[in-house]
C-alpha cells in the first residue's frame, strides 16, 4: 500500500516556534521554527517512508468561517512577526524536498487536507497520514487515514487511529468530534459551546445520543433519559451555540487540486 503524508504546515510551524528557544542564523535571522519543522519532517519521512507528500498552509486573511461566525478565533493573539517571517524559509525547504504546497484564499489548511482526504477516500491503495501540530484534523481519522502529532513540544509523537481517538475522547468516534466541539466549546477557536457543559458531560451525552440532532430530538420529543433537568435547561437555553457549525474540513471541494 502506498503512503501519502499530508502536512498541516502552519500548525507545525506554530508548534515548533513555541517549543524551541530562540535560534538565529549567522545574520541574526530567527530560525527556531524552521529548525523544528525540518527536524520533525525528516523524522517523519525516515519513520514512515512515504510515497507521496503534500503540504497545506493557512493564509493570513479571514476565511469563510469568519463570515459564518464573526467571533471565530477573535480572541486568539496575533502571531509574532518573527514567526511569520520564517514561513517563506519553510516553503523553501519543502520545495527542496520536492513537496508541493497548497493554499487557498478564504480557506484553512484543514480544508485543503480534508479535500484531499475526500478525493482519496475510495482509493484502497493509498494510506494517508496527516502530520499536524493540533487536534482539529482528528475528525478525519478513519479507515486508511491516521493523524501523527507531537504530544509535548516536538517530542513524544502520537499516532491516532480510530481506536486511539476513541481512547482519547471517552469512546467518541472521529465523526462525532465536530458536534462534540460545538457542544462543549473550543476556547482556542473562540467557539463558546453550551454554557456549563464541559468535556465530561459532552462525552456522556454523545455516547448516549450519538449526534447533536439525536440529542435535541430526544429533548424535543420529551424522550430524554439519564440527563439532569439542569443540563437539559442549559442545552435548551444555548441551542443556537450548540448548533453553531464551523464546517468540518471533510468536504468535496476541488479547487483545482491534482491528486
Structure commentary:
The protein is of the alpha/beta class and 259 residues long. Helix content is 41%, strand content 13%. It contains 12 helices and 6 strands. The chain has a 6-stranded mixed β-sheet. Strand 5 (145-152) and strand 6 (155-160) form a beta hairpin. Helix 1 (9-19) packs across helix 2, helix 2 runs parallel beside helix 5 (87-96) and helix 9 crosses helix 10. The mean pLDDT is 87.
Keywords:
single chain, 259 residues, alpha/beta, Rossmann fold, DNA polymerase, domain 1, 2 domains, 6-stranded mixed β-sheet, 12 helices, 6 strands, 41% helix, globular
The total of helices stands at 12
Give the CATH level 1 class of the largest domain: Alpha Beta
- Extended strand count: 6
Mean pLDDT: 87
Q: Could you say which overall geometry the principal axes of the C-alpha atoms support? A: globular
Amino acid at each position: 500500500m502506498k503512503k501519502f503524508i499530508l502536512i498541516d504546515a502552519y500548525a507545525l510551524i506554530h508548534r515548533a516556534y513555541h517549543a524551541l528557544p530562540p535560534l538565529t542564523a549567522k545574520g541574526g535571522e530567527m530560525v527556531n521554527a524552521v529548525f523544528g519543522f525540518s527536524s520533525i519532517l525528516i523524522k517523519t519521512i525516515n519513520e514512515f517512508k512515504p510515497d507521496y507528500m503534500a503540504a497545506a498552509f493557512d493564509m493570513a486573511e479571514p476565511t469563510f468561517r469568519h463570515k459564518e461566525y464573526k467571533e471565530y478565533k477573535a480572541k486568539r493573539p496575533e502571531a509574532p512577526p518573527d514567526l511569520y517571517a520564517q514561513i517563506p524559509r519553510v516553503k523553501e525547504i519543502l520545495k527542496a524536498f520536492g513537496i508541493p504546497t497548497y493554499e487557498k484564499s478564504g480557506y484553512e489548511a484543514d480544508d485543503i487536507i480534508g479535500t484531499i482526504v475526500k478525493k482519496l477516500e475510495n482509493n484502497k491503495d493509498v494510506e494517508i497520514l496527516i502530520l499536524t501540530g493540533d487536534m482539529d484534523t482528528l475528525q478525519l481519522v478513519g479507515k486508511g487515514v491516521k493523524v501523527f502529532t507531537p504530544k509535548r513540544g516536538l517530542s513524544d509523537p502520537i499516532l491516532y487511529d480510530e481506536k486511539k481517538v476513541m481512547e482519547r475522547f471517552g469512546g467518541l468516534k472521529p465523526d462525532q468530534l465536530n458536534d462534540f466541539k460545538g457542544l462543549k466549546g473550543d476556547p482556542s477557536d473562540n467557539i463558546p459551546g453550551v454554557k456549563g457543559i464541559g468535556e465530561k458531560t459532552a462525552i456522556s451525552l454523545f455516547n448516549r445520543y450519538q449526534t447533536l440532532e439525536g440529542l435535541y430530538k430526544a429533548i424535543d420529543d420529551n424522550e430524554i433519559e439519564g440527563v439532569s433537568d439542569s443540563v437539559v435547561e442549559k442545552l435548551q437555553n444555548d441551542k443556537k451555540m450548540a448548533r453553531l457549525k464551523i464546517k468540518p474540513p471533510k468536504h468535496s471541494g476541488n479547487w483545482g487540486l491534482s491528486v
